[in-house]
Amino acid sequence: MRVLLGLLLALGGTPVAHADAIRPDDPGYAGQWGIVRTHVNEAWSAVRGNARVTIAIVDTGVTRLPDLAPRMLTGHDFVNDDDNPADDNGHGTMAAGVAAASGYNKTGVAGVCWYCRILPVKVLDAKGNGGYDTIAKGIRYAADQGATVISLSLGGADDSKLLRDAVTYADAKGSLVVAAAGNQGSAQPHYPAAIPSVLAVGGVDEHDRRYSWSNYGASWVNVTAPGCNAAQQPNGKIGQYCGTSSATPFVAGVAGLLASTDPRPSAAAIRKALTGGRVDALRSLAALPYAGDKTKPIVAFGATPTRARGVVTVTAAAADQHGVQRVQLYAGGKLIATDTSAPYSFRWNSAPTTANVPLDLRAYDRAGNVALVRRYVRTDNTPPAIKVYPRATSVTARATDASGIARLELVVNGKVVSRYAGYLRWFGIPKKARTVVVRAYDRAGNVRAVTVRR
After folding, report:
1. Which is the catalytic residue, given 26, 39, 45, 59?
2. Locate the Peptidase S8/S53 domain: which residues (predicted)?
3. Which of 39, 76, 91, 190 is catalytic?
4. For the structural domain made of 385-451, what CATH number should be given?
């Protein structure tokens, strides 16, 4: 039995990405709507892959593009029976890029799993054809090489004992096998995707609607994923790579992120976390078992003033591989507030102190691990001191404050008639002045007013 690639390739119509948590500088990222839709960009705050995780691309081979080469293993070519699995079609290279192209390197696109290793296994020829026997060899080989995830962007209409036995072998080795549901727009099972232990992937658009070409079926399709993704072709050109062939490595990349967490989850746990509906990286991370997790969350201050007066807002960002349970703000060792959902924001009344106050953010993950970050904020709730030296037709004002003076104002008959950005100023007093007041503002916003008696 031979199998034909289900490849749909479109070079135009690139959609625009929405605002995201992490926005890589890779040229193709603007067209990667799927990364945002599936919250991969938010998951990157906590996990971006690990060198202990290997994603096997069992396909037409993989070209050693700069975005892939540093993490590519040697692999094997079962079509030509050698150790040079170069891509003479392009399909496998694009699949590898979707799953694991490096991110934030100003090159190509941002794959899902930036630090996962890539194992190229060539089982399809230059026309994208290959026999079930060759594919089965590729699956077994990938499992023997310790592949964490085996990505199969290929398939056929017929069931096969060869494929089932190869998948069973990979299962026993601890590999998660992910395969394309096919592009016939049919509910007819597609193999090896329809093998029960394989994670079968369908394709959806940016609105989570099934692409008309994607195969479907609740009884055998386990998860859906973005079916059009920006990817580099072997010549380095970026285009939209569409089909369940594209959705599959996307899921394989998310599986790689999950496999990079602590404690290391089993293939069964990863499969369970991914199964159901459209893939969601954050939801899947939260669904993993976390008993034994020793990795602390990541926490950082957001918008926080360096000087504070009265009530101020302090924001924070926090991330964890299995989810943040809560974030707390402490001021001077005293608990101010707790927030249990992002975006994390706190209201802090800095009054009445004037001092350098340590602000602490404490983030707790679901396993109870805690991370702390500290920042000192100068609180200033004390108005400036003012000395005035009045004369018949003028007044000289001098103001002092630990935070510095922002400005002086002369107020005559209830109206500001003069301003000066400094701490020392001579003001002329109008002849018809009934009341004269000097106001001083410090850089924290405190104000003191002194009536000038003549």
Report:
1. 59
2. 52-274
3. 91
4. 2.60.40
